[in-house]
Amino acid sequence: MPLPEFTNETIQLSNGYTYHDSLTSLIGLGSFGVVYKGYNETDNNKVAIKKMSRVHVKENELRVIRSLNSTYLVGVMDICMLDDVTCCLIMELCDGDLEYHIKNNSNEGRLNNANLRLLIDNIARGYKGLFDLKIVHRDIKPQNILIKYIGKSKQLSSAKITDFGIARTLDTEEPDLCNVAGTLFYMAPEVGANLLKTCQYDSKVDMWSIGCLLYQCVTGEVRSVVCFALALFKQ
């Protein structure tokens, strides 16, 4: 996604939320929106503000993120309208994502033992939170794990699952899912199998994605995961 045109103005939102529309405040770019670093004027609490067109705000995504109540999941704190066509999702501000950490603060893609232990613990707890709510994330990968550091060190203090744009909630009317969604490198075989035939799946596909992610963090390799997944797709 190309960089947006910045106004270099301070943008005031409802409920005291503020951000500066500039490159220095930009912290993320996505397919459907941009994320700025902002704060709340009431308590000076720093937040992440995801600005996106209303047409890209799915009612399903809002329903999912509003139901989240876990320390290990990044939910939405507030929703503010910038104008008739643009809305802003107010979220917890983290230090970065796991993909950045792997590229810049690891040993050739491998995490140290302390960071690996914390990552396993926190992601497992996040998965448990989703499982209890019958939510299938469907796109767990390093870019969708937000992290915080201990002070100015590179030791992780927390890891949280984020981005519920293609998540779905299982219910009695739709106990299983049967369409392709997610990122190939971390996609469970039963999800990818829907390219060839109808194949139902549930929240266990997220555990496969977590396994691929952790394998990458232990070995520093992604290619082996992809080859293994492609071999399973062919069966």
UniProtKB/TrEMBL annotation:
The keyword Kinase applies. This is Protein kinase domain-containing protein. InterPro entries: Atg1-like, Kinase-like_dom_sf, Prot_kinase_dom, Protein_kinase_ATP_BS, Ser/Thr_kinase_AS. GO terms for biological process: autophagosome assembly; autophagy of mitochondrion; axon extension; piecemeal microautophagy of the nucleus; positive regulation of autophagy; response to starvation; reticulophagy. Gene3D superfamilies: Transferase(Phosphotransferase) domain 1. Belongs to the protein kinase superfamily. GO terms for cellular component: autophagosome; cytosol; phagophore assembly site membrane. Signal peptide: none annotated. Keywords: ATP-binding, Kinase, Nucleotide-binding, Serine/threonine-protein kinase, Transferase. ATP binds at residue 51. Pfam families: Pkinase. Residues 21-235 form the Protein kinase domain. SUPFAM superfamilies: Protein kinase-like (PK-like) (SSF56112). GO terms for molecular function: ATP binding; protein serine/threonine kinase activity.
